[in-house]
Amino acid sequence: MKTTTTKHRGDAAEDAALDHLQDAGLVLVARNYRTPGRGGGEIDLIMRDPRDGTLAFVEVRQRSTAAHGGAGGSITGLKQRRIVFAARHYLSQLRTLPPCRFDVVLVEEKITWLKAAFDAG
For residue 63, how many C-alpha atoms fall within 13 Å in the half-sphere facing its CB? Predict the structure, then answer.
């Protein structure tokens, strides 16, 4: 009997989110982008919308139950700050800054894509 680890469930949720976003026309730029050092941040998916060049920094959340606010309720202020920190690090390596947004993809019974779910403010 094989048990499914949290990492396996998370990877499967990221795969499902990636498929959903690619089906919607977005292009994968990076996956699991991490800032160097301790205390930094991670971005699950960095996607580009070829229609207008917007970079979407995507947090993928998966929860098996709706307890404690479900998947969406798990994106705390601290989590948002870490994502913004990682996004700024990523953007610091680019010559020109594209339009950007922070999206969230909730993988529960169905996939819910929340465009511009939070901002860097």
Answer: 14
Q: Angle at CA 66, nearest 5°, toward 57 and 115?
A: 25
β-strand partners of 30: 46
Residue 29, pLDDT > 80, answer yes
pLDDT digits (tens, 9 = 90+) for 90-119: 999 999 999 999 999 999 889 999 999 998
Nearest to 74 by CA among 12, 117, 30: 117
**Look-up of token digits 């990523």:** 90
CATH fit for domain 6-118, picks 3.50.50.60, 3.40.1350.10, 3.40.50.360, 3.40.605.10? 3.40.1350.10
Burial class (CB in 10 A: 0-12, 13-18, 19+), 39: exposed
pTM: 0.86
**Site of tokens 């993928």:** 60
